[in-house]
Design a protein that fits this description.
single chain; mainly alpha; 5 helices
Length: 125
């Protein structure tokens, strides 16, 4: 008897949950940069960005967001400035001119990909 035949229904459900969880994570990772860039037309500090994204349905952990913001800044897609006049210093991020051009290209590509996926997934319907 093969292993797959011997597995119980509970094992299959566990496999399903693990596989879908990993695939959902891959989808999020592939879109998080676009989501972050979409919210930085005006300056925002990191935690406010986490809250905004979560309010709009994109859960992002601070431990994921902050390294991404640093990488985007290093790539010169974002500009940043420290605000020290409040009770806590906060680093505000905003799209640079270069970041605006990249964001525009990414949204165009996203629309193309989305259209293709819609076409492919709706073929049978």
């Amino acid at each position: 008897m093969t292993y797959s035949i011997m597995r119980s229904r509970g094992d299959k459900m566990s496999d399903y949950n693990e596989i879908t969880s990993n695939l959902f994570l891959e989808l999020r990772r592939g879109t998080i940069t676009l989501c972050v860039l979409s919210q930085l037309e005006k300056p925002k500090y990191g935690y406010a960005l986490v809250e905004t994204l979560q309010e709009k349905g994109m859960r992002v952990e601070p431990g994921t967001l902050y390294p991404l913001l640093r990488r985007l800044e290093k790539q010169e897609l974002l500009a940043s400035e420290w605000e020290t006049s409040g009770s806590k210093p906060r680093k505000y991020y905003v799209l640079s001119d270069f970041g605006k051009r990249v964001y525009s290209a990414l949204t165009d590509e996203w629309q193309d990909i989305r259209g293709t996926i819609d076409d492919l997934t709706n073929e049978e319907k």
